[in-house]
Amino acid sequence: MVIGNGMIANSFLRSKTINDVIIFASGVPNSNEVRENEYEREFNLIKKTQTEHTNKKLIYFSSTSLETGKKSKYISFKLMIEKYIKSNFSDFLILRLPNIVGNTENKFQLLPFIKNSLITKNHIRVKQSCFRYLIDVDDLPLITASLIENKIQNKIINVSFDNKIEVIEIVNFFTSKYKIINPTIKFYKDDYIEKEPNNQFFLNFIKNDIHQYNHRSIDILSKYFKN
Are the C-beta atoms of residues 84 and 121 closer than 8 Å to each other? Predict the structure, then answer.
């Protein structure tokens, strides 16, 4: 059963590889969200899911940003949801994800935001020495199925490949791909240094099957952003 109608939910609906579990893919879509009703909606849906599907395994998607040391309403809420799941579900997997890449124009997603800023405004602000990890949304059903088949349960996992890419490289990719002439790129810096997510469990888990996944950042970008 898939709960949600966004990019992650659709990837599981297309794959049809997982049965008899709850794929909860109906979270707050904007990590900068401040409206309380958006968080209430997700929490109420989690509680409803727990009540109606007590004996089924829950797959919940969280964020690797919870380990970066940042503080925000979104991060506090995700931590609260993770705690609730651990206390109220007897069988679960919490998969913390990096930046998800797929066919979406969701303006709250990092890559559509960068692309649209360059195309429509011809300028963007970029933090110096800022890196991101990417994951192909089509790989999520495969990864999830593999975890379930190997009886991994009641665990929080940072699902992140070793594919760190500097944000300015993403900007340069879009500039070249869409032939953007002389964009204005303003660099800024601050004193905040993000912590790296601990993804060693995941890397060890998939090391023998890494060839199955679209794990290189440039390949992920090239798959979804074409001329």
Answer: no
